[in-house]
């Protein structure tokens, strides 16, 4: 019996190796970015010699395991075959029969996504990957390949890792017609038109990339959901996708429109307390689980930006979420978004979510998670952390990040977002530990930046944000710089000087964007609708909070939103330990100054400059940083393949131009209000204010 198993495993090994060679050869073409961080560029010199003796993969099954390897175990072997073959210069001879060591996959065949911690350890000439489920072995394989790509000596490998949080998910804002809301990488990767019969290879490569990071959930459609995506024909499509992703440990979730019982169910109400409505959702959930037994659950945007919700019937968010939670039962999860604000509510928008949700703490069912954006407004280049973190100790809160860069220059600006997320995860709300600890029982969700572009993300550097999100969701304690470095080595180059330059570029990039777009705590000054470029002058849209003027509150005397007690008092939503510090413009972290304070243009700052001088110097600093990044990248032409080097050079040229535009248009507008001269030796805006105001961009993507 055991010999039979061994034979099967040996055969599987051989097939995986041959497949690995074939795949590796097929990919030895131009560097177009499709392979992401799973590129496995051949190792050289000593690093190559060190892995040359490694055979892979051999599965050692537990004695009570089934005869056939699970699809996940097969995926693990396949990945190992591909990875080792490519890393060892695509040379089959390095997998020679006299190899000194084996990579041993020692995981029982039980499937499951809970016990996925793994260890990867050198044991003499062998490497043993161990875990309590097949998925643990797949994750371990990706971890081993990452280490080898980074040049770690196989005999020194010794890692043990497990995910910090249960849910590590991507939220797609993809519409059924293929348009991606806030998507800057082409069309949607989901081909609803041809599913379920046709499944694009991209769906498998997407799953591989996610599994390599430990991402274990994908919401496949926009939170601004269409009700017809709950119809049986769509459930068949989800089934095909879920079946394809299951081996990679990815559960499929769907965004639902709260009014679906009315929209497609023939009912005249969607009241969550109406028995007919509840029965409709129960039947709908059962239909999902009949087709997809491991269906993840529903994501809901309710009573926000015009979406229907329980408040339409005088019910609370908890009433709505709990109704869906009951329908799903212990089979899955309801994720209810806290991104709510209403046109009718005159309360400072930054306060509304806290006001609606915190009183409901403790009222949500066990299988409900409330998903909270990193900041209280909307994925700005910089926001203070959301005050709901730490304020709902009896509710599972999930951290929502935006990987796609709606407010940070779309895909053409280089902005590495790990420092942004790290900044928020590291905050201490004053209750419940750091934000990273508050969200541990739930997880992290990231609004995906993928699309049909060959490089997936619209630009090569934007792949790093997908990567960073996944790595942080697995381990929110990972430092941004380490993430940048490991991504760079796997994706671009192993040349030490080039790595240092690229990491430096990445680490300064987000702060540069803050500098030229929204320095000193300014926010939401982007043009309306598409959010492309500056438009601080927009003040006349019907809904107050759609206007940049609402956020900057600039006039002849000063600028900034007074959120202290004398203003909207949003500061009171933070714990005293924080509010006391932020209450004083001289002690607040200057990065949040104008978020919480309205300051006179001529006020002297602790820096010795006036506010106006400080603001102008921030804009100039941001622009100079982008110029420096472009220069550093230009120096790297020998270290990076020409195709990707040129693509990044062109994006940086766009960023340089647009950084100047942001700086010039903003300064021109502030001057039109304050009438102040520019500080000495400062370059005046290139064009008069009217020229900036007159620009229109009907072609801007992602609207
Ligand atoms: C999906 C912002 C974006 C919207 C997005 C919304 C949300 O307002 O501009 O496009 O809608 O956030 O997170 O629901």
From TrEMBL:
Domain Glycosyl hydrolase family 67 C-terminal: 458-681
Record key words, sorted: Hydrolase, Signal
InterPro entries reported for this sequence: A-glucoronidase_C_sf, GH, Glyco_hydro_67_C, Glyco_hydro_67_cat, Hex-like_dom2
Ranges of residues in domain Glycosyl hydrolase family 67 catalytic: 156-456
Segments crossing the lipid bilayer: none
Residue runs in coiled coils: none
Keyword Hydrolase on entry: yes
Signal peptide: 1-30
PANTHER family assigned to the protein according to its UniProt record, in alphabetical order: ALPHA-GLUCURONIDASE A
Name used for this protein in its record: Alpha-glucuronidase
